[in-house]
User: Which sequence fits this backbone?
């Protein structure tokens, strides 16, 4: 076994940071256990002047993955964005049996290739794509401790990959997080940053949803803000609904609003679904820890369910007309398209 294979097989210290499609190379960076624990995003925000990395031909990495006998064994958190997925990842990651990875950048590349082929140069064949995705998922499945299980929280639009990942031979388990359309509209309209992010994401979501329904059903210029946000909900939820059909009981649905109403019940259910042995005392200790009182993406800031409820209530009062327009758009879209109806039904059929 070569030195790279030994390093890859020993621990997740060498993290698969980014693939260069044109050059067919993989950049690996060195991360400590603490780096993983602190990171809300395993993307450019993880880099520091002290980050050590190297770039290697994919073919060389693939040979080392094979030599190290790495297996795909990670579970997933898929979600629609701004629905508590980072908080859930931190809570689950507080258990000694879970190694939590949040939003690895490398999965976004695969999602973009799959969801927006018109924006990507056709370099890989389908076999090339799946071989590289499989290899990267094997790298993301490694843990520091033998008794741990890797749990990958994906970026919201990576849900476009959820169906092929969950249908694959590894048969992974997944948590799928969302909120109702009304709650989602209030959440996005309640914050200037989330509103701006929604505007940036809308063109891609529009293309994806149009592709999913089979025709150009909507155009960007005709959408008001509330309608665009509702379209974003429908796009991401329909991706989850499609993936859930291929995975059956390997998917656990989690409505974040219901989670906050009964966090102990839902967190215990999440551990059970992932086959993690968490006692009632373990769950309570995790909930009594700092994560439920901090903003999960930036733990230096205080944030809890009470403050979230206050923000949503203010958004409902301030943006009532826009929320109503968004819900009306969704009702009309669901009446016309089975894909959108599936998304609505998926949310309504939350398991808990």
Assistant:
């Amino acid at each position: 076994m070569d030195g790279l294979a030994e390093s890859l097989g020993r621990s997740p210290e060498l993290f698969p940071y980014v693939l260069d499609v044109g050059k067919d190379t993989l950049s690996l960076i060195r991360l400590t256990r603490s780096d993983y624990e602190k990171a809300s995003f395993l993307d450019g925000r993880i880099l520091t002047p002290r980050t050590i990395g190297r770039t290697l031909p994919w073919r060389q990495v693939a040979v080392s993955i094979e030599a190290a006998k790495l297996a795909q064994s990670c579970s997933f958190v898929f979600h629609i964005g701004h629905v508590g997925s980072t908080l859930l990842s931190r809570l689950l990651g507080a258990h000694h049996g879970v190694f939590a990875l949040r939003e690895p950048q490398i999965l976004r590349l695969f999602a973009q290739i799959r969801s927006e082929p018109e924006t990507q140069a056709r370099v890989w064949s389908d076999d090339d794509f799946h071989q590289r995705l499989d290899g990267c998922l094997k790298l993301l499945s490694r843990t520091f401790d033998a008794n741990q299980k890797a749990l990958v929280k994906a970026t919201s639009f990576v849900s476009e990959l959820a169906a092929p990942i969950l249908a694959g031979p590894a048969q992974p388990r997944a948590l799928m997080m969302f909120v109702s359309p009304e709650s989602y509209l209030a959440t996005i309209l309640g914050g200037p940053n989330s509103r701006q992010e929604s505007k940036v994401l809308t063109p891609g979501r529009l293309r994806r949803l149009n592709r999913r329904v089979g025709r150009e059903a909507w155009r960007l210029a005709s959408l008001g803000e509330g309608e665009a946000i509702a379209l974003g909900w429908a796009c991401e939820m329909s991706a989850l609904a499609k993936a859930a059909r291929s995975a059956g009981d390997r998917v656990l649905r989690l409505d974040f609003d219901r989670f906050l109403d009964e966090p102990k019940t839902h967190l215990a259910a999440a551990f059970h679904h992932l086959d993690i042995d968490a006692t009632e005392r373990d769950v309570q200790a995790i909930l009594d820890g700092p994560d439920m009182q901090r903003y999960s993406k930036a733990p230096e800031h205080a944030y809890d369910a009470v403050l979230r409820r206050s923000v949503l209530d203010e958004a409902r009062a301030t943006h009532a007309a826009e929320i109503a327009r968004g819900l009306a758009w969704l009702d009309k879209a669901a009446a016309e398209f089975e894909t959108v109806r599936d998304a609505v039904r998926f949310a309504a059929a939350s398991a808990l």
Remarks:
- The two ends are 47 Å apart (CA to CA).
- The CA atoms of residues 221 and 228 lie 10 Å apart.
